[in-house]
Amino acid sequence: MRTDFDTELEDRLVRYAVIDSQSDGHSPTVPSTPIQLDMSRLLMAELKAMGAQDVTLSQDSVVLATIPATEGVNAPVVGWLAHVDTAPQFNASGVKPVVHRGYNGGDISFADAPDLRLSPEEFPFLSEKVGEDIITASGTTLLGADDKAGVAVVMTAARHLLENPDIAHGKIRLAFVPDEEIGRGVTQNLPADLAADFAYTFDGSMPGDVEYESFSADAGVVKITGVSIHPGWAKDELVNALHLGAKVLMTLPHVTMTPETTEGREGFIHAVSMTGSAAQVEMHFILRDFEMEGLEAKGALLRQVCETVAKTEPRARITCDITHQYRNMRYWLEKDMTPVDIATAAVRKAGMEPVSGAIRGGTDGSRLTEFGTPCPNIFCGMQNVHGPLEWVSVQDMAKATLVALNLATGVAELDSPS
Ligand SMILES: [Zn+2]
């Protein structure tokens, strides 16, 4: 049975997905790609048309808007966030969304990629979706349900609250953020711009997910300067930075403590890139762990490996810089679980069992929480993100919309703050 939300969510997802809003980590601008503003401007127009207040584009290109509290309700101010960009990892231009209405349980094929199959054998969750309406791309692009499913959910819930003043809820602040996929969506300005007591991102996968643990993350940059000399005269003089780079890699653990050998709550050191020449090499690493002690130990290990390799060749210069990326939001949320408790109650009220796993990654909420606005992550139904097999069920988006509405009413039931 299709609900009114289903029709609206499907329409929104299809309309938003065709807009190319891919971010680009190599670009220094804000937002990283101007095409993201095509999404932002559309959302601003739609928000104004549905009667949202204070619709603005912030200095950081975040679309902000207010759903005023219902008459007489004095509740904490809650933020709802989704991101307008799609992942740089796969082609995102020319997205052609395909709606598979009343999914029959078989393999899904793709018009533009005859060899590609989305199969319930390979992705068992799909086999639970028989009869639902599945949206995919056409085979040559990602779909962008990450996070346009989240955008569609927030917009649909906002429209519903604005049209139904009889639903008692507190003030809700909306934020549609650029550049989440390249880790630049949340700036230090966002807590003040959002002006919420706490917030939720709608940027998760499985129905029921309420996530309040992310990785803690640092980045490592290793620079190696060798001694560059014409190879014809190089005897006893040339120091090849490439060999030293290889030594650093081979000295680091690689049958353990890598992304491909860890899961669950284990952290890792991931060698992301190695570029350069015999004269100079630059290596980029990401360091991840759920606990600070584990993260610090990984930084110390990378430094120690660099020092050890440096000792084998005193004529080379090896530097290792480790910088802060984001922190596990649990460190803050465990001090006051109210935002998580409201979310798990909202999920139960929508007929699902809440699931709180630890995210092997970060969300906009990781940084927003660290900057002072606690912000767990809620599902919006996206599956197989960042590739051509991405899909979302309209009915899962409808479940997330119900959760958003339950959040709104759940907050209004809290004791009023003074
Ligand atoms: Zn996302």
TrEMBL record:
- Which GO biological-process labels does this protein carry? peptide metabolic process; proteolysis
InterPro entries from the UniProt entry: ArgE/DapE_CS (IPR001261), Bact_exopeptidase_dim_dom (IPR036264), Peptidase_M20 (IPR002933), Peptidase_M20_dimer (IPR011650), Peptidase_M20B (IPR010161)
Sorted alphabetically, the keyword list is:
Aminopeptidase, Hydrolase, Metal-binding, Metalloprotease, Protease, Zinc
Q: Where does Zn(2+) 1 bind?
A: H83, D146, D203
The UniProt annotation places Zn(2+) 2 binding at D146, E181, H386
- Family that this chain belongs to: Belongs to the peptidase M20B family.
- SUPFAM superfamilies, alphabetized: Bacterial exopeptidase dimerisation domain, Zn-dependent exopeptidases
Q: What does the cofactor field's note say?
A: Binds 2 Zn(2+) ions per subunit.
**GO MF annotations, alphabetized:** metallopeptidase activity; tripeptide aminopeptidase activity; zinc ion binding
Residues at the catalytic site: D85, E180
Any GO CC annotation of this UniProt entry = cytosol
The answer to keyword Hydrolase applying to this record is yes
What this protein needs as a cofactor is: Zn(2+)
Could you tell me which residue ranges the Peptidase M20 dimerisation domain spans?
A: 213-311
Q: What Enzyme Commission number does this protein have?
A: 3.4.11.4
Indicate whether DNA damage appears among the record's keywords.
Answer: no
What is the organism of origin for this protein?
A: Puniceibacterium antarcticum
The molecule here is called: Peptidase T
